[in-house]
């Protein structure tokens, strides 16, 4: 029987799908598929693990621990916790992700529809785009319903049109790939979609929306969230795999030297002709627009809670929209290049917190979390130094001797080892406390 709860699960699944499927989710898979070539399926596995699995686990972890990053990082010192949250929100919001949606809409959603000789004023286009974002996000009520009911259907239909055509009539044969570690490269490339970190943010929006619908019981609320997240994950896996296949089979059909956005536009035009141009425009616009609305709303909620109401929701939303509008005019490639250091810095620590909160009660202890978290954060700092050109000042050559470094996961084993050490310390302190208690 199709109950109200089942209907709400589907609406929520559509909204979660649309929130996750933003600019990076469109522009990275086709370009990645071209690099992977015949290894596209292996790359698809790595890419989906880094995006879908980690984002789903992050949603489960947040819902188990409470309703946000503060609950997820409850064992971490408040100052560090607040700094991590600010960096995460800025990375997912006004500094990187939201401006990228505006730039991608301009480059892939608007410009392909216009003749090459037609002058496009980027400031005017992005200005109208962010006015729309402001209109839909200025009120915190009903964000998920607006996205799930109004925008997701257009997004899904346009994407499916492109992918089904690519599967039924490929542009060509996959060429041999030129990546030494296809799985690892695709996994790390999945970082750029921001999905694992985005899972925390999407959970904040989703739990608020579910509560607004009257589901106040925590078990029911978490059940709705997990069912919705699972459905959206299946849809995202299909879309990612299809786009990777399109990129892998289309490299020989389009000219070389194109940007990420240019490559995808050329593929779709070759695949569907004028219809493809319009389908891509719809897909890009709605994918970016829904993500921007959700992230803008979350930024407003986060800073209002962080400042205990001193910085109002609407004030933050307006500031986020203005800064995003200004940065969007840098262009997609410049924004992506700028995003790398922040993502490398916070990803190991965020992923560590996610897995710690998925574990048993035995590892849900203060020193276990702290030892593992700070180790992962330290590795995040070291991984950023070469990107910033500071590795000559502080040598990071010793990282290459750590297992899994060639796969980009040098931080995992030291983090796990320090987590075990912290757990041993917690067990020792617990036993000492038990021994010191008076016998009644």
Keywords:
globular, single chain, 2 domains, 440 residues
Distance between the termini: 56 Å
**Tally of strands:** 0
Gyration radius, to the nearest Å?
22 Å
Total number of helical segments?
Answer: 17
Report what the structure shows:
The protein has 440 residues and is mainly α. 75% of the residues lie in helices and 0% in strands. The protein folds into 2 domains: 4-338, Hydantoin permease, CATH 1.10.4160.10; 359-440, no CATH class. It contains 17 helices and no strands. The chain starts with a helix and ends with a helix.
Show the helix and strand layout.
Blueprint: H1 4-20, H2 23-36, H3 40-65, H4 69-72, H5 78-92, H6 97-110, H7 122-137, H8 143-168, H9 182-189, H10 195-212, H11 218-250, H12 260-272, H13 274-306, H14 313-328, H15 332-358, H16 366-388, H17 412-436
Structure summarized in a few sentences:
By secondary structure, this protein is mainly α. 75% of the residues lie in helices and 0% in strands.
